[in-house]
Amino acid sequence: MNSSQGLSDKVKGAVSKVKGEVKDQIGNATDDASLQAEGKMDKLKGEVQQGIGKLKE
Predict the structure, then answer these.
(1) What is the pLDDT along the chain (57 residues), one digit of tens a residue?
(2) Are 41 and 23 in contact (CB under 8 A)?
(3) What is the pTM of this model?
(4) Which of 1, 6, 41, 42 is the most buried (most CB within 10 A)?
(5) CA 20 to CA 17: how far, in whole Å?
């Protein structure tokens, strides 16, 4: 596989995880369950993207 594609997926995954963590924390601080759930989904998406990136390398 192409390692640059794997790296791209790993970077996208890291960004999604960070974005998800921010949403999760803001949702937690403001008692916004919807935003918190969205953050958890973004973190999960990021983990999946990073896993795909590792497989491509």
Answers:
(1) 567 888 999 999 999 999 999 999 999 999 999 999 999 999 999 999 999 999 988
(2) no
(3) 0.85
(4) 42
(5) 5
